[in-house]
Design a protein that fits this description.
The complex is a heterodimer of chains A (220) and B (266). Chain A has 220 residues and is of the alpha/beta class. Chain A is 15% helix and 35% strand. Chain A has a 6-stranded mixed β-sheet with strand order 5-7-9-11-14-15, with no helix packed on it. In chain A, strands 6-8-10-12-13 form a 5-stranded mixed β-sheet, with no helix packed on it. A 4-stranded mixed β-sheet of chain A has the order 1-2-3-4, with helices on one face. In chain B, helix 1 crosses helix 11 and helix 5 runs parallel beside helix 6. The chains are: A alpha/beta (220), B alpha/beta (266).
């Protein structure tokens, strides 16, 4: 599929929007959506999302098929499914020539104004917290605990477990901890583990960001 | 009304059963009426550690299935006034009883006993769910090993999810000489990770192996350091404030004697 053409998934505060270009046959829509959703199922898993689609109006039957694919393939709970009329769109800057061009990922572009989840306890081993937005933990994250966020992750305590920030692909995401001793951290598709010989007694807060595809940890 | 305390750990072999036996015997020595419940169905051990194996006629599954009355299954430990054991079945499995049955059993025992100590099996499956079902409090046993601490952390999370608030930590088999050399996690390291209150620290002591094999809880052994640790824990269970045992007392007989006579070590 060449850039600028094809089905595009967009995320916003309300949920997921599927943008279908003109001139697609229902079969093309179904197969391409299926492929895309399957590829991203790890991200969708367990989420509850509202889905809308933009583009040519589908028949009721095709709408039902599309919803069934999302239900089956994404692992998410589809709370609602509807067509978004152009008139429903907020009046905004003139639509760029090719609205779908370049936006192949599913995340809110402005990470600094994400929604945020607060956790006011220790995240112990065996606990997994996933959130579409940023996560703030007031407490520790212990080994075996997992934090998965599409935005930033802030741990106001010791981070000993695994954190994945920018899990939907946002490389601008960061991970901050008062004491950063993770088993592993991930930002977008970059993965870093703690060096085996790292000093256990660093007591300054540190922040992890991505630079040139690599995770960099620096004192704050 | 009695109190139901579950003794659990997640990992196997860290000393749940030994702890149950010693705290149970310790409480009985202090004049409390205590019953120990072994919920490790299929892999029962508490009866062996208590030296009561050959007196089992009925077990917990018989009670649950109505094959006998509760009183018939309780084994009285003749050495300690007021100490009873409800043994596990050996030829059945963990699915032979259910959490609601455990709640009912605990409520029944609560009327008769001051303390009901539940020895939990290793793992987080059915046996664990049964064991914690009727509990008011929980003691989490761990050893200063990374894997045991990991499992303890998981267990604390599960206890909290099951509304058993503020479990207490028992750190077993601590070797102060290894901690000093930096080869073993210290008590501070463990508490830092698990972030719960301590009920006691038990030093590694070969007397425990001897007493366990003999079926005599070490808590009665005045010479054993672990026995002293368990006596202190018993008092803490009853609400007394007892300072932690000084684990540096294992330097050898001479320095022990010097301490005894108030001579400062050189």
């Amino acid at each position: 599929m060449e850039e600028g053409r094809g089905i595009v998934f967009k995320g916003n505060a309300e949920g997921l929007i599927i943008v279908i270009p003109q001139g697609y046959t229902p079969e093309e829509i179904m197969s391409e959506t299926e492929a895309k959703v399957s590829a991203a199922s790890r991200f969708f898993k367990g989420a509850k999302i509202n889905v809308a689609y933009r583009g040519p109006k589908l028949s009721d039957e095709d709408e039902a098929r599309l919803k069934a694919i999302l239900d089956e393939r994404s692992g998410a709970v589809i709370e609602s499914f509807s067509r978004q009329e152009e008139s429903d769109l907020p009046p905004k800057k003139a639509a760029p020539a090719a609205p779908s061009a370049g936006i192949r990922r599913f995340f809110t572009s402005d990470i600094n104004e994400d929604s945020c989840k607060f956790i006011r306890s220790t995240v112990r081993g065996g606990t997994r917290v996933e959130y579409d937005g940023s996560i703030v933990v007031i407490g520790d994250v212990n080994p075996g605990g997992e934090i998965i966020a599409s935005g930033n992750v802030i741990v106001l305590g010791t981070l000993r477990g695994m954190v994945h920030a920018g899990a939907a692909g946002n490389r601008d995401a960061f991970i901050y901890a008062l004491s950063l001793k993770p088993t592993q951290i991930r930002i977008a598709e970059a993965i870093a583990r703690r060096p085996d010989d790292s000093d256990d007694h660093v007591l300054t807060p540190e922040i992890a960001t991505v630079k040139d595809g690599l995770i960099i940890v620096e004192p704050v | 009304m009695g109190e139901v305390i579950v003794i659990t750990s997640g990992k196997g072999g860290v000393g749940k059963t030994t702890t149950t036996a010693n705290i149970g015997a310790g409480l009985a020595l202090l004049g409390k009426k205590v019953v120990l419940i072994d919920t490790d169905i299929g892999l029962r051990n508490l009866d062996v550690v208590m030296g009561l194996e050959n007196r089992i006629v009925y077990d917990i599954v018989d009670v649950m299935e109505g094959a006998c009355r509760l009183k018939q299954a309780l084994i009285k430990d003749k050495r300690y006034e007021g100490l009873y054991l409800l043994p596990a079945a050996q030829t059945r499995d963990k699915n032979s009883i259910t959490p609601p049955q455990m709640v009912k059993l605990c409520d029944e025992l609560r009327r008769e006993f001051d303390y009901i100590l539940v020895d939990c099996p290793a793992g987080i499956e059915q046996g664990f769910k049964n064991a914690i079902a009727g509990a008011d409090r929980a003691f989490v046993v761990t050893t200063p090993e990374v894997s045991a601490v990991r499992d303890a952390d998981r267990i604390i999370g599960l206890l909290e999810a099951n509304e058993i608030r503020s479990p207490k930590l028992l750190i077993n088999r601590v070797r102060q000489d290894m901690v000093k050399r930096g080869d073993m996690m210290s008590i501070e390291d463990i508490i830092d990770i698990l972030a719960i209150d301590l009920i006691g620290v038990v030093p590694d002591d070969e007397n425990i192996i001897i007493s366990t094999n003999r079926g005599e809880p070490a808590v009665t052994d005045n010479k054993s350091q672990a026995g002293q640790a368990y006596r202190n824990i018993t008092k803490r269970v009853m609400g007394e404030t007892v300072p932690l045992l000084d684990l540096n007392g294992s330097e050898g007989l001479l320095s022990k004697m010097k301490k005894l006579f108030g001579i400062k070590p050189a």
